[in-house]
Amino acid sequence: MRDRLNRCNVTKYFANSQFIISLLMVMTTYCLGRGAARAAGLALAMAAALKAFPVLLAAYLVCRGRWRALLWMVLFGGIIGVLTVSGMGMASFSFLRSITLTTSRHSLGISGFFSISSMVSRPFWDGFERLSPLMDIARRAAGAGGELSLFALTVLATAGAATDSGWRSFSLWVVAMILLSPIAEPHYLVMLMVPFAWIADAAARGEADRRTIYAAIISYLLAFLRYPLSLLQHYGLGSAGFYLAANNFWFLVIVFAYLAAYSLATSERRAWQDVLPPASADLMRAAG
């Protein structure tokens, strides 16, 4: 019985739906690249049906003017929703009860979580058993401000680009999607395979600058920091304060991944401004 429970726990940890979402995102780029807007919309609708946060990729479609794919995403999402409700009944809305849990201190206070809401909330809670109403409003406002700032930065970086060659804008939205999710757990990082693959492709073609490559390498290496940290902790090396700070390394992983994707997404625009004459560059900047 114990062996069966252990196998169930292993399956739950490793066979997570983020692998399927990663596959659906790859299918989305494949279909969009071949003009199959209907199939791309279906892939995104299925991803959003598995987890709510992939719906943020609809913002990518808006930024890129992929209106047909966005329409199909909405239509297929509605069909999936109707079929789910008709088959499961009101139990389909049971996920709404988890909203209170995912936004609670119990969830956001876990050091392994690295969403913006988690990273902003934990300093407010540090040393306090309960926040005053005013402090809690400040915490929520700071979290919302951080999320809106990241969303606006991502929109500005992707909406003004002429073309999305090498899926640079899509890669940036994948990383932003993880940061903007209510709870970003370590196994969410498997979805970084998508931007890492496009960054590596751009580097192989000589289209990625050094800061993009270095930021991606740092992010990739930091993702494996759990193993040496566990080894140090096993032998009792390091203070409690060291491990308290080190437990936030997941956030550094996603931050460097965002910096790499942002640098790649904006490199095409920078290259155009270097090549075009000043008057043309000003016109392009005004049009963007």
Fold and architecture overview:
This protein has 288 residues and is an all-alpha fold. It has two domains: 1-96, no CATH class; 103-288, no CATH class. The protein has 16 helices and no strands. It has helices spanning 2-14, 17-33, 37-50, 57-64, 67-88, 98-102, 105-108, 116-125, 133-159, 168-180, 193-204, 210-222, 226-234, 240-246, 249-275, 278-287. It is globular. It starts with a helix and ends with a helix.
Name its key features.
288 residues, mainly alpha, 2 domains, 16 helices, 0% strand, globular
SSE inventory with pairings:
Layout: H1 2-14, H2 17-33, H3 37-50, H4 57-64, H5 67-88, H6 98-102, H7 105-108, H8 116-125, H9 133-159, H10 168-180, H11 193-204, H12 210-222, H13 226-234, H14 240-246, H15 249-275, H16 278-287
Helix pairs in contact: 2-3, 3-5, 4-5, 8-9, 9-10, 10-11, 10-15, 11-12, 11-15, 12-15
User: Roughly what percent helix?
Assistant: over 70%
Order of helices and strands: HHHHHHHHHHHHHHHH
**Helix-strand makeup class:** mainly alpha
- Helix segment tally: 16
- The fraction of residues in strands falls at under 5%
Main sheet characteristics: none
Number of domains: 2
Radius of gyration: 21 Å
What's the shape? Answer: globular
The mean pLDDT is: 82
- List low-pLDDT spans: 4-15, 272-288
State the end-to-end CA separation: 62 Å
| Count of individual beta strands | 0
Characterize this entry briefly.
The chain is an all-alpha fold.
